[in-house]
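Sample intake sheet
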Amino acid sequence: MMNISRSSNPEGKAQKQCRSGFTLLEVLISVSIVAIVLVSALRLQGQSVTMNESARFYSTAPFLAQQKMAEVRFDPQRFMGTDSGRFDEMPVQYSWRVVVESLMLGGVENDELPVYDVTVTIHSAVTKTSYVLQAYFHAFDEEI
């Protein structure tokens, strides 16, 4: 005959088996925390890309505007009125717009000084922002 004995604690109650694992509530809470962290990280990534594009524009646009201003100063008659175009050599789509107006400024003793009012605008199609450079420079009498 076989003797089967049951182990019990000193109080005579049966022991509970210890189960390892996670409850459904613990899993749901941890998945929620991970989702919140991932959404925040993705939002920061998107903002980082936008800020990078904006910084690129505001560091490139002044040079492009100065380049276009130099072209206007070299031959203002070519740009008289309003002219626009694109910088095709740039990897990002930047466009330019030039407005040139001739003005006569009154000077001392009723002398008039011919000047050009030049406004160069650089626009980015990616960031939808613009950079404006305005200058006044002397126009020689034969140019006006």
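Comment: The first helix runs from residue 24 to 74. DSSP finds one helix and four strands in the chain.
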